[in-house]
Amino acid sequence: MATRDALGLAQEKGYDLVEVSPQAKPPVCKIMDYGKYKYELSKKAKDAKKKQRFWQLKEMRFRPKTEDHDYTFKMRHIREFLSQGNKVKVLVAFRGREMSHKEFGQKIMERLQSDLTDVGTVEQKPKMEGRTLTMTFMPKA
């Protein structure tokens, strides 16, 4: 259909002539209410945004000589983060001569794994990165 004819037909009906696919040969146009079309597109975008699942990567630091009270306090926070749906990266930082006793950091990691089995799973096993031992937990589905 010729462009003039299509514009005349759209004005007769009280709608707009909207170019849907400009790259096509010939270009594809539709007769529609453009305001309503834009409104429906924004509604679809909002619905898609609502259905997205956002999570953050939280971080909790330990030391090889972390005492029981501090451990339980931090473990409770990790449990809370996982129940909110966030991932948690656990770090055990070694300083100076502590590097010769990496088994203390491993014990902390093993203890965390056993204490948090009900709310999270291990995404990344304990791994040494320089002077820090890192492990990542993700929430259970």
User: According to CATH, what is the topology of the largest domain?
Assistant: Translation Initiation Factor IF3
Q: Please tell me the total number of domains.
A: 2
Stretches with pLDDT under 50, minimum 5 residues? none
Q: Helix tally?
A: 4
Order of helices and strands: HEEHEHEHEE
Radius of gyration: 29 Å
- Kindly report the average pLDDT value: 91
CATH architecture of the largest domain: 2-Layer Sandwich
Largest pleated sheet = 4 strands, mixed
Strand content: 25-35%
Task: Give structural notes.
With 141 residues, this protein is of the alpha+beta class. It has helices spanning 3-13, 34-51, 68-83, 102-115, and strands at 16-21, 28-32, 57-62, 87-93, 120-129, 132-139. The chain has two domains: 3-51, Roll (Ubiquitin-like (UB roll)); 57-139, Translation initiation factor 3 (IF-3), C-terminal domain (Translation Initiation Factor IF3). It has four helices and six strands. The strands form two sheets. It has a four-stranded mixed sheet with strand order 3-4-6-5, with helices on one face. Strands 1-2 form a two-stranded antiparallel ribbon. A hairpin with a 6-residue loop joins strand 1 and strand 2 (28-32). The two termini are 54 Å apart.
